[in-house]
Amino acid sequence: MRIFRWDLQLHFFWGFILTLLGVYWQPLYLSGVVVTLVTEALDLWSKGLWSWDDVGLGIVGSGVALLYLFSVNLI
Predict the structure, then answer these.
(1) Where are the domains of the chain?
(2) SS3 24
């Protein structure tokens, strides 16, 4: 069950949903990546650890959302 870790799915869908909201307000297109990096920076500051898995899946989620928006011609 290590493949289906809830925290990794959270970062993926966080990046995905925040990027999809860019349809309504354009600065939100980058929000999935920005929020992922900010949360990891806060984890590094508060807990002293950085998770590349979280960062990677947040960026992948944003990328999938952008691909979706390009495919349905919303961008």
Answers:
(1) 6-71
(2) coil
Helix, strand, coil distribution of the chain in percent, nearest 5: 80, 0, 20
| Of the candidates 47, 46, 45, 51, the residue with the CA atom closest to the CA atom of residue 11 | 51
CA nearest to 40, candidates 20, 14, 21, 68? 14
pLDDT digits (tens, 9 = 90+) for 19-35: 999 999 988 999 999 99
Residue 68, SS3 per DSSP = helix
C-alpha–C-alpha distance, residues 30 and 17, integer Å = 11
Indicate if the pLDDT at residue 14 is higher than 80: yes
- The letter for the amino acid at 22 is G
Q: How far apart are alpha carbons 58 and 11 in whole angstroms?
A: 5
pTM, to two decimals: 0.85
Give yes or no for residue 2 having a pLDDT over 90: no
